[in-house]
């Protein structure tokens, strides 16, 4: 295994010789964190809300006041024609219409079933999803805090509760997801490209005639990227925790441990891709499509897995980022340990083992 | 006044302090096969790029096909043909599709393009393989299609940059028969090669070294003037007198 | 005693036969040149000999050890230079050399002395700090050769190492091969340049995965059947048309001359008579020896 040392050294030289790529590899994750943290903030504000208050009690006015003071909702003209509340949505005058039928105040004091109505403009799915969840939180809090509303108020229909991120700050969700994506990008994409490069330029041929096996070649090429990936992970985590105040409640050691397992999964994917790709370009495209995109789209980072069609839901089970994301969120935001996270941990370990075995089996680098 | 294909006088190209081409002068006639020789890194490629209007000279003057290389380089490009050792063909397209594409680039359309392609397929004996994807063809065949692509628009000067690199002797001999026919029709062929036996096929050659043209003349006369046996020895003795570069 | 032996080697790719029952043996201290058209199977043959690809049947042995079973022991004995530029362009000359030395376990004083010798050989000394990507074509190939030589292999396999390299650099490259040969290395080199083929101890002409001919350069030259004559006349188009009209002969332009290829049963006198009939009675004609290129072309056209 002594030869691996020379390959590692050479690989580090390649990385250092190309300051632009190195700059991108280190700066891009940090930039992405800031971008997601500020510019592309998933917090949606100024949702135009129209209210039809048929109750007209102090309780209902208090509730409406809470909506408008939350900072998420802005007042919109109430529909002129009370019979057709959908019209304002159709015209685009409002994103949401809340309908408070009569009897709201009584329902708070009694136990009778009561439905608060919320009409949402489904054309803007993000906006309506945000509006739905904000509304839930606001109503939830209102019920919890209003004087005189006790257990009796349970009759008011509410379905969801938002836990652990009561402020609904999206950076808390985004930072763990970003770490998952960046680790995948560095580990899978860069390694598959660097292996494909040696095949493309022909150096692989000469390398394999030296007394080193394919396994050593790949190990030597991969190890420097493990370091780079870990560095990036720590950088993003630091920015998240120190700048955006993302909590890190659980064990950092546990995080590091699963980070490593996840990196191994990503590297195995990168190696698998490099065995199929002959050129750097193909490797890059394949890695983007097969590893980075699923980590963004199918991990639960951006889209709820629950809302996906069955086939996609099934595919998400093969996406390592899905499990890693849950582990990260669990450890960071909830302080969970293995006692809670064991199903995700087991799935990640199983998937990683599977990928590693597949990569090693396909290891024999073909020349032509 | 003689109608020259290429006339250059004191042509130079500097990259920073480094003179890749250092004041070269040449006159080449139509109908000549001119061998533009030199060691690796002598400045041949830079010189050819200036002649093709792809690179602005630092100093010096010249005309190619009668167009000024400093001012009329946009007119030079459509008037010349260029074929490089690094094949400019699309490997996933057939030879015919490649020719159709290059034809349209040079403004040939419809019946004229079809007729010209048919003429070249016939003249360069491409019929056997013209309808197969070029990527899977032997180098020698691809090279003939690449030549056809370079002369589709009937240029009066064709620049050939190591057209026969890595091609076996059978293919090379056929290729040269085609070049001779083009020259007979009054085309000037401006060829770079590292095969010295091939250089002996040229009407005249120049040998470039460190940005300068060391010698110009007919191959036979150059060999005789140095009392050597062949062009290979002549080239080596000329260049090693001057030392080598990395 | 043969250092490298290839026995009835077969290699197929997706139904295409790249190497078709090829055999050859290379002795220590000999240079064998392999020439053949593009797609003749040279690269497949070389890769199989280096253990880079599996083959369908037959065997390759190096020092009596089969590549099928003993690749681990064979690797230190072999040096290989693939067809494509096989160095790291972003590493310096010295770093490239040191990298390959490291892989082969060459270090310390041994490395230092070999490095010095290789630099002296190749003329790379002034450029040790230069990145490999910034070397000229000839220098790149000499560096690649140096990298393949750093562990002093006893068998050296070179796949078209001088393609696209200028004549002077090619001569220097061959000077290095000659000195390796003196040191007892077995060298197998593929080349499209017939002037290089002529320098080898033995020559193999390869076509369609098979051996077309094998022998010393002189032996191969004698394989030529027919005669070649040089007509010292400027080959104008009219003259060529006239000459092409002469029955049984094939005229070719050769720069400022015409070469006339005649079949074996045609004597010099007969050719002179036919030339005279076509109006070339007083043209200077002399018989010339067939070159390796002529033999190669004749063998190939027979296929």
What does this structure look like?
The complex is a heterotrimer of chains A (368), B (246) and C (303). Chain A has 368 residues and is mainly alpha-helical. Chain A has two domains: 4-40 and 170-361, no CATH class; 47-155, 3-Layer(aba) Sandwich (abc type-2 transporter like fold). In chain A, 65% of the residues lie in helices and 5% in strands. Chain A has 14 helices and four strands. In chain A, α9 packs across α10. Chain A is elongated. Chain B starts with a strand and ends with a helix. Chain B has a six-stranded mixed β-sheet, sandwiched between helices. In chain B, strands 2-1-4-5 form a four-stranded antiparallel β-sheet, covered by helices on one side. Chain B is globular. In chain B, α3 (95-105) runs parallel beside α5 (139-151). Chain C has helices at 42-49, 71-74, 93-103, 108-122, 137-149, 167-182, 194-197, 217-221, 237-244, 268-277, 292-301; strands spanning 2-13, 16-27, 31-35, 57-62, 65-66, 78-81, 155-159, 186-190, 202-207, 210-215, 227-231, 250-254, 257-262, 285-288. Chain C is built from eleven helices and 14 strands. In chain C, the strands form three sheets. A six-stranded mixed β-sheet of chain C has the order 6-7-8-3-9-10, with helices on both faces. A four-stranded antiparallel β-sheet of chain C has the order 2-1-4-5. A four-stranded antiparallel β-sheet of chain C has the order 12-13-11-14, covered by helices on one side. Chain C is 34% helix and 27% strand. With 303 residues, chain C is of the alpha/beta class. Chains in contact: A-C, B-C. The interface between B and C is large, with 41 and 42 residues.
Structure summarized in a few sentences:
Chain B is an alpha/beta fold and about 250 residues long. Chain B has helices at about 45-50, 75-80, 95-105, 110-125, 140-150, 170-185, 195-200, 220-225, 230-240, and strands at about 5-15, 20-30, 35-40, 60-65, 65-70, 80-85, 155-160, 190, 205-210, 210-215.
């Amino acid at each position: 295994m002594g030869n691996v040392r020379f390959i590692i050294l050479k690989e580090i030289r390649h990385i250092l010789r190309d300051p632009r790529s190195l700059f991108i590899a280190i700066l891009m994750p940090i930039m992405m964190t800031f971008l997601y943290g500020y510019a592309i903030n998933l917090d949606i504000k100024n949702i135009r809300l129209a209210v039809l208050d048929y109750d007209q009690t102090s309780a209902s006015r208090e509730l409406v006041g809470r909506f408008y003071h939350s900072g998420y909702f802005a007042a919109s003209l109430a529909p002129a024609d009370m019979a057709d509340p959908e019209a304002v949505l159709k015209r685009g005058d409002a994103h949401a219409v809340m309908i408070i039928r009569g009897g709201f105040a009584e329902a708070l004091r009694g136990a009778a079933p009561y439905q608060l109505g919320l009409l949402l403009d489904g054309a803007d799915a993000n906006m309506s999803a945000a509006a739905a969840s904000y509304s839930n939180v606001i109503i939830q809090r209102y019920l919890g805090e209003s004087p005189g509303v006790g257990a009796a108020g349970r009759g008011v229909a509410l379905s969801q509760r938002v836990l652990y991120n009561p402020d609904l700050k999206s950076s808390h969700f985004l930072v763990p997801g970003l770490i998952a994506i960046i680790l995948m990008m560095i580990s899978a994409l860069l390694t598959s490209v660097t292996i494909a490069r040696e095949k493309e330029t022909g150096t692989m041929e000469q390398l394999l005639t030296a007394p080193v096996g394919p396994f050593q070649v790949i190990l030597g090429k991969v190890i420097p990227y493990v370091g780079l990936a870990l560095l990036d992970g720590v950088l993003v985590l630091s920015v998240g925790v120190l700048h955006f105040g993302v909590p890190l409640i659980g064990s950092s050691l546990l995080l590091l441990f699963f980070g490593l397992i996840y990196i191994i999964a990503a590297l195995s994917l990168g190696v698998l891709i490099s065995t199929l790709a002959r050129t750097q370009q193909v490797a890059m495209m394949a890695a983007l499509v097969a590893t980075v995109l699923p980590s963004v789209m199918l991990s639960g980072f951006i889209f709820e897995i629950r809302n996906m069609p069955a086939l996609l839901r099934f595919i998400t089970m093969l996406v390592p980022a899905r499990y890693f994301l849950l582990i990260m969120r669990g450890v960071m935001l909830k302080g969970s340990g293995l006692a809670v996270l064991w199903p995700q941990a087991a799935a990640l370990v199983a998937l990683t083992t599977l990928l590693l075995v597949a990569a090693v089996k396909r290891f024999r680098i073909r020349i032509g | 006044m003689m109608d020259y294909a290429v006339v250059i006088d004191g042509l130079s190209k500097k990259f920073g302090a480094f003179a890749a081409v250092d004041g070269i002068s040449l006159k080449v006639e139509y109908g000549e096969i001119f061998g533009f020789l030199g060691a690796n890194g002598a400045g041949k490629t830079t010189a050819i790029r200036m002649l093709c209007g792809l690179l602005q000279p630092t100093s010096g003057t010249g005309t190619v096909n009668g167009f000024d290389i400093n001012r009329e380089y946009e007119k030079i490009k459509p008037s010349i043909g260029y074929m490089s050792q690094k094949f400019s063909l699309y490997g996933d397209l057939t030879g015919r599709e490649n020719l159709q594409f290059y034809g349209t680039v040079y403004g040939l359309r419809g019946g004229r393009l079809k007729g010209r392609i048919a003429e070249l397929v016939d003249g360069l004996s491409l019929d056997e393989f013209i309808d197969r994807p070029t990527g899977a063809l032997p180098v020698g065949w691809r090279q003939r299609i690449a030549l056809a692509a370079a002369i589709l628009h009937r240029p009066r000067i064709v620049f050939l940059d190591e057209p026969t690199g890595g091609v076996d002797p059978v293919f090379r001999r056929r290729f040269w028969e085609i070049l001779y026919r083009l020259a007979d029709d009054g085309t000037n062929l401006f060829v770079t090669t590292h095969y010295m036996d091939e250089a002996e096929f040229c009407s005249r050659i120049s040998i470039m070294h460190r940005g300068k043209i060391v010698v110009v003349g007919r191959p036979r006369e150059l060999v005789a003037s140095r009392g050597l046996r062949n062009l290979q020895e002549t080239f080596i003795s000329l260049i090693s007198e001057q030392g080598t570069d990395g | 005693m043969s250092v490298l032996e290839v026995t009835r080697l077969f290699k197929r790719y997706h139904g295409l036969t790249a190497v078709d029952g090829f055999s050859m043996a290379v002795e220590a201290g000999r240079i064998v040149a392999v020439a053949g058209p593009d797609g003749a199977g040279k690269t497949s043959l070389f890769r199989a000999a280096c253990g880079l690809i599996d083959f369908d049947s037959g065997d390759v042995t190096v020092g009596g050890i089969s590549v099928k079973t003993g690749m681990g022991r064979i690797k230190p004995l072999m040096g290989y230079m693939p067809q494509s530029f096989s160095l790291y362009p972003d590493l310096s000359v010295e770093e490239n050399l040191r990298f390959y030395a490291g892989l082969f376990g060459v270090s310390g004083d041994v490395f230092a002395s070999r490095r010095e010798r290789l630099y002296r050989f190749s003329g790379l000394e002034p450029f040790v700090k230069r990145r490999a990507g910034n070397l000229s074509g000839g220098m790149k190939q000499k560096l690649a050769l140096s990298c393949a030589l750093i562990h002093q292999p006893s068998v050296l396999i070179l796949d078209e190492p001088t393609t696209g390299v200028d004549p002077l650099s090619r001569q220097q490259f061959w000077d290095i091969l000659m000195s390796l040969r003196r040191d007892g290395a077995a060298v197998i080199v593929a080349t499209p340049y017939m002037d290089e083929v002529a320098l080898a101890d033995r020559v193999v002409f390869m076509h369609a995965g098979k051996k077309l001919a094998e022998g010393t350069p002189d032996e191969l030259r004698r394989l030529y059947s027919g005669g070649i004559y040089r007509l010292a006349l400027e080959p104008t188009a009219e003259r060529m048309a006239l000459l092409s009209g002469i029955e049984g002969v094939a005229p070719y332009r050769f720069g400022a001359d015409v070469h006339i290829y005649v079949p074996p049963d045609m004597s010099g006198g007969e050719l002179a008579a036919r030339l005279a009939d076509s109006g070339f009675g007083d043209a200077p004609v002399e018989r010339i020896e067939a070159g390796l290129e002529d033999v190669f072309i004749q063998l190939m056209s027979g296929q």
